[in-house]
Amino acid sequence: PRRSSDLLSFLAAVSMYVAYNNLGVVIFNHRHLSHGAFEFKCRALRYALALPALLSGAGSSLGWAALHRLHHKHSDTEKDPHQAARGFWRTIFIFYRAEDSDLLRAGIRLARDRFLLLTDRCWRAIILTWVAALSAIGLDAVYFGFARPSALTMWAEGAANYFAHGAGYRNHATDDRSTNHMLLGLLNWGDGIHNNHHANPKAPSTGERWWE
Prior knowledge:
Elements (H helix, E strand, L loop, with lengths): L1 H33 L8 H13 L5 H13 L14 H5 L7 H8 L6 H24 L1 H25 L18 H6 L6 H6 L13
Helix pairs in contact: 1-2, 1-3, 1-7, 3-5, 6-7
């Protein structure tokens, strides 16, 4: 019974990581919002993927997308909010810096979306409500349903910003230090194949070679 419970807890954490990071952050925040790599034909599906992005602990989707647009605009320079040169720990744990005026300009078009504007104002309340609902089930639900997968999401995103700007190989001679890192590509559903992404940010898929 104990092993069965441990397995279920592990599977729950993995499932929530896939929902938070891969569906929410990678697909909704990154590919859809930040770059417009695709549009949703079904509005309900758009909202369904927006929810795990908000519950992940990654913050406002509007703010996330604006910050990431600045990363592409100023990649590997002093104005890059994801700049790997700040060091391993600051990048892994996502201590980002950006001027409010720069963020406003980067996200001004997205802010016309009433849904994004609303969630930007109340994303903290959404997370607190989710954690409260999980705590009503028990502390294990909070740990495996939020704390553990949320921390892994933060680590996976930070690792891509750090390791995929120096470690790996390059298919394109971009103006930054972006690289393709296959392990991070698996963890982040293609986002770790970073050099390809920086060369073609609007491409829905980052894979170009057969093994990617």
